[in-house]
Amino acid sequence: NAGVTQTPKFQVLKTGQSMTLQCAQDMNHNSMYWYRQDPGMGLRLIYYSASEGTTDKGEVPNGYNVSRLNKREFSLRLESAAPSQTSVYFCASRGLAGVTSSYNEQFFGPGTRLTVL
Amino acid sequence: AQTVTQSQPEMSVQEAETVTLSCTYDTSENNYYLFWYKQPPSRQMILVIRQEAYKQQNATENRFSVNFQKAAKSFSLKISDSQLGDTAMYFCALTAKGTYKYIFGTGTRLKVLA
């Protein structure tokens, strides 16, 4: 099992450009998440998807959109990138409590380092 | 609102010594889960240890153990016999049972010195 995979690993954009970060998991998990990590601020939730077909805003959703394409895939789109979106982005997934993970553990992808010039 | 606070931005410890990382939290929920994640320079987030709030017994995983004080809302991580490979950022996290959101602390950067 590959676990949670993310593409790309690194990306440089110019202000105003758009891009989509891809995430996939092969653990048959129901919930998927997108976080951003900035120095001194820990991980902040951008969007999450509790199950296939649903998405909800997290703490910092402005400037982002998401798509839960199917149970495996959850993408994050930046429509018009801004320098404030320079960050490391993590995708995570979680199974059903009591079924695949009774402790509600999240599994993380390797991250995408995004720089917006 | 739930919060997680890690008041030690950086710490260092000599190899083979013991170090304790602090984490305090606030939640109005009675049933929740607490986690410590490790993030080495590779950037990968790795679960170190987890604790269910209704369990009074402190969790242990090899050299890692926690001191869970529910009344004080404290969840510290003790690393015994520190190794160079323990050098990493450590994040404390909280989620309430039946919810989907996780709250992370700002992290503690631990350096193990040879």
Features:
heterodimer; A: 117 residues; mainly beta; 4-stranded antiparallel β-sheet; 0% helix; B: 114 residues; 6-stranded mixed β-sheet; 12 strands; globular
What features would you describe in this structure?
The complex is a heterodimer of chains A (about 120) and B (about 110). By secondary structure, chain A is mainly β. Chain A contains no helices and eleven strands. In chain A, the strands form two sheets. In chain A, strands 2, 4, 5, 6, 9, 10 and 11 form a seven-stranded mixed beta sheet that branches. A four-stranded antiparallel beta sheet of chain A has the order 1-3-8-7, with no helix packed on it. In chain A, β4 (about 30-35) and β5 (about 45-50) form a beta hairpin. With about 110 residues, chain B is mainly beta. Chain B is about 0% helix and about 55% strand. In chain B, strands 2, 5, 6, 10, 11 and 12 form a six-stranded mixed beta sheet that branches. In chain B, β8 (about 65-70) and β9 (about 75-80) form a beta hairpin. The interface of A and B includes residues 94, 97, 106 and 113 of A.
